[in-house]
Amino acid sequence: MVMDKKNRKIFSDIIKKAKMVDGICPYCSQHTLLISIVNDFFRCLTCGGDIEQKVNGKINYIPVQLEEFDEVKKDG
Ligand SMILES: [Zn+2]
């Protein structure tokens, strides 16, 4: 796989913007690290499941399907 400059820049932008939180993943039920990919959407570093963070008095994580990020995966 060849990473051109543009892809590398996008990747570093993602890393710069990313934030990590720990929480319980609804997919694998592990207490794990979740990496923020955009806004309130997180990805489990254990199983790769996409999760939406809902703050409603307490933080809940719910499973989501992010089709646009599947496309990014295919390209990268
Ligand atoms: Zn998980």
Description:
The protein has about 80 residues and is an alpha+beta fold. The chain has one domain. Helices cover about 30% and strands about 40% of the residues. It has two helices and five strands; from the N terminus they run H-E-E-E-E-E-H. Strands 1-2-3-4-5 form a five-stranded antiparallel beta sheet, with no helix packed on it. A hairpin with a 1-residue loop joins strand 4 and strand 5. The longest helix is centred in the N-terminal third of the chain and has 13 residues. The termini are close together. The relative contact order is 0.17. The structure holds zinc ion (ZN). The site of zinc ion (ZN) has 9 residues, from loops.
Task: Give descriptors for this structure.
76 residues; 5 strands; binds zinc ion; 2 helices; elongated
In short:
Helices cover 29% and strands 39% of the residues. The chain is α+β, with helices and mostly antiparallel strands. It has one domain.
